[in-house]
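Data deposition worksheet. Section B asks for the primary sequence of the deposited chain exactly as it was used as input, without tags or linkers unless they were present during the calculation. Section C holds the resulting structure in token form. Section D is free text for depositor observations; keep each observation to a single sentence. Incomplete worksheets are returned to the depositor.
Section A, Depositor: J.P.
Section B:
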Amino acid sequence: MLAIVRRYEAAGFRAWPAAAVHYDGTWVVRLTAGHPAKRLNSVNPLDPGDTQHVAERIGRASRRFDAYGRPLTFRMSPLSGQVLSKHLDEAGWSRFDESLVMRLPLKEAQLDTAMDQIPLKDISRFIGAAIKTNDSDVSLRPGLSEVIGAIQPEAGLFALEDGNEALATLVCVHDGDLAGLFEVATEKSARNKGHGRNLILSALKWARLRSAREAWLQVEAGNVAALSLYRSLGFEEVYRYHYRRPPGA
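Section C:
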């Protein structure tokens, strides 16, 4: 199981790259000045057995986060292990925002009727659409541009539009035999009309044509509508992760 988790974790780091990455043993410290997303600003432990000098290392990580003006945040997957979890419990750290990692073998995806769609080449146009569908603050535009521009594997920028109005957006990162879906969003007034489903199917069809064999994504456990959609498409849970912060953070 841990080998599977490591595979998705590594793919996630490549697909949604932080601006600065530091290693402390097998802890991956990711920081991004231009975007506040937790997965871009978190400590990611990758070995349950790496438990040496935990308090000292947390202190080092805290100083790095302070320098970026970010709250110290640990992203806890099954790779974090029980020893570290117990240490954080005893220190009174809060636990929040659980998410699921889900997968779908593309040979099982119903893509025959999916519309053929060419990803956008204009990053600026896509960013504008994504900010609208995600209802994000326009101040995040430079940071999001930086993240998307830094993606090393092939990234398909998908947008469903009605004239100049963005209805749904997503990023599909084709990385070997994996196709990761990121930033999947539908504009509030356009929800429950099948736009998200249609765009996901188009992106998966695009990825399968590029020889991807498995789709995967991350979704917050509390996002009932998204979970229902993904499960209806055939996605199944692989593992979960959550975030932790120290008292007062």
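Section D:
The chain is about 35% helix and 30% strand.
The helical segments are 2-15, 54-68, 82-90, 123-133, 141-149, 195-209, 224-233.
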